[in-house]
Amino acid sequence: MSQRLTAQARKVPEWCVYIVGALPAPWLFWQALTGALGVEPIEALEHEYGRLALQLLLAGLAVTPLWRLTGVNLVKFRRPLGLLAFFYLCLHFLVWLLLDVQILSQAWADIVKRPFITIGMAGFLLLVPLAVTSTRKAIRRMGPKAWGRLHRLVYVAVGLGVLHFVMGRKGLQYEPLVYAGILVVLLGLRLVPRRR
Ligand code: HEM
């Protein structure tokens, strides 16, 4: 069963994942423009992009435990998932900067003075070197060991992203805690020994 699923996944071209994964971006933007996202379209768009980014990051972190536990190998999708997550984070950031805050000095003040924004920014910045070094050429140039060490930063970045989500909501709310729980489970599963 796991071999069949792995073989089927191998047939899906990477570019397909990029196209399907990127489609919600213009769709959500269009919905915001046409009022389908409610009375606060900018805030709603910002939230949708942020949530999608986090979901894709968590999906990327689920690839290895899934392989270890079930034998289903979706490793070829890890890079597209990571890059799509980064793409949505850039949109999340740009909606915040260009449509929400709009004033550069105010944006800087928010980054410095509002802890949940500072933490989100730190998570975002940590993901920049990972996105830049996501090519096969970069892996060859850095060597797999150094590359692997650098890419472990993804755990810190996702941890900061989840914390940012928890802190961004007023009071302790159910939804961000679910994301935090999923992250804890995914991290815990990495402790499970590899299948032979
Ligand atoms: C790893 C990086 C980040 C992740 C994973 C992330 C994810 C999220 C998520 C999931 C939400 C909540 C959406 C909701 O309430 O439904 C959110 C909200 C928000 N994020 Fe981010 N974000 C990140 C970085 C940033 C950065 C760099 C900024 C801006 C500098 C930012 C600004 C905001 C703002 C303003 C909100 C709205 C909070 C509110 O008023 O409810 N985020 N983010």
From TrEMBL:
Gene Ontology cellular component list: plasma membrane
HAMAP family in UniProt: MsrQ
Protein name: Protein-methionine-sulfoxide reductase heme-binding subunit MsrQ
Family per record: Belongs to the MsrQ family.
Domain of life: Bacteria
Keywords, alphabetical: Cell membrane, Electron transport, Flavoprotein, FMN, Heme, Iron, Membrane, Metal-binding, Transmembrane, Transmembrane helix, Transport
Species the sequence originates in: Marinibacterium profundimaris
Keyword hit for Transmembrane: yes
Cited function: Part of the MsrPQ system that repairs oxidized periplasmic proteins containing methionine sulfoxide residues (Met-O), using respiratory chain electrons. Thus protects these proteins from oxidative-stress damage caused by reactive species of oxygen and chlorine generated by the host defense mechanisms. MsrPQ is essential for the maintenance of envelope integrity under bleach stress, rescuing a wide series of structurally unrelated periplasmic proteins from methionine oxidation.
Positions of the Ferric oxidoreductase domain: 50-161
